[in-house]
Amino acid sequence: MSALKLGSFRLSALSDGCFRLDGGSMFGVVPRVLWEGLKPPDERNRIHLGLNCLLAEGEGGRILVEAGLGGKLTPKQEDLYGLERTDHLLSALEGLRLKPEDIDMVILSHLHLDHCGWSTRADGGDRFIPTFPKARYLVQEKEWEAAVSPDIRSRASYDRRHFAALLDEGRLELVSGDAEVAPGVRVRLTGGHTPGHQVVVLESGEERCLFLGDLVPTFAHLRVTWHMGWDLFPLELMRVKEEVLKEAQERGDLLFFTHEDSTPFARLDEKGELCPLGPDADSAAALG
Ligand SMILES: [Zn+2]
How far is the CA of 286 from the centre of ligand 1 (A)? Predict the structure, then answer.
């Protein structure tokens, strides 16, 4: 786990483990010969990916960005996804001496099943209830609509068990477009990957951190034309990605990568070169 200070925020990366997805689907039309050196596929053509969530503690309370793959997978699905866990999101929180009721807000970049898994948990029977009982859960309105009545292509990417209870229990808060949702915390609607995908911008003084979600899932996806086969609106995604990364580079923003399996934090230097921040992130932040 790595943690660092960003102005008045304390940021902690919380891992929900690692998993594997088909390399071809992660890189769309990019030929395997180009990506396999960076992300070597296993014998089932799957590449190794992180499930990184971000905890931001600041003036607006404790905000969790993203909720991982969750705890509802069957053994067959765990094998399909090559799930590897020493820790998961809730045990990582426990490592910080935090309980689910200590979380004030959960912001979800979108509702694909590997991004909102821990949003709900089984109540002991067949019902699912919000895992973070005191939290408001923020999702873009367009994303909610796409998830509750998914198109034929996206049906397998959404799992209602992860989010239906948020509405039933009155914990869901829908956002339309860009908005400030807490002091220094903004969401920006990007679309591209899904109709209602959003990135999260944390800002304190001159410093900013961007939670990129599936706009740029790993370091390899920093190349503007390298994007996932699942992206519903590729041209829109490329346009927004170029804009977001250009601004991030100019401002020296800290970037957070949800599916990177090395370290989730990095910056781009003046030349646009990637500068990952290792586990020793505290000192890197102090220098930066
Ligand atoms: Zn996704």
Answer: 32
Gap from CA of 153 to ligand 1 centroid (Å):
13
Query: 109 C-alpha to center of ligand 1: Å?
Result: 9
pLDDT average per 10 residues of sequence, the chain (288 residues): 89 97 96 96 98 96 98 95 96 97 98 98 93 98 98 95 96 98 98 98 96 98 96 97 97 97 95 84 42
Query: Separation of 287 CA from ligand 1 center, angstroms?
Result: 33
Sequence-distant (6+) residues with CB within 8 A of 83 are: 17, 18, 19, 69, 73
Could you give the CA distance from residue 35 to residue 220 in angstroms, rounded to a whole number? 8
Which tokens belong to 213? 């979600």
3 state DSSP class of 141:
helix
Tell whether pTM > 0.70. yes
For 41, residues 6+ apart whose C-beta sits below 8 A from its C-beta are 23, 32, 47
